[in-house]
Amino acid sequence: MEQPASSKPALAGTVAVVTGSTQGIGAGIARKLAQQGARVVIHGLEKQRVGGEKVLAGIRAAGSDGALIVGDLKQEAHCREVIRLAIDRFGRLDILVNNAGVVHRGNIENTPVALWDEILAVNLRAHFILCQEAVKHMKGRRSGCIVNIGSVNAYIGLRNLLPYSTSKGGLMTFSRNLANYLTQFRIRVNLINPGWVLTEGEQYVQSVVEGQGENWVEEAVKSRPFGRMILPEDIANAVLFFASNELITGAVLDYEQLPFGAPGDLWREPGN
Question: Domain 10-195+232-252, what architecture?
Answer without folding.
Answer: 3-Layer(aba) Sandwich (3.40)
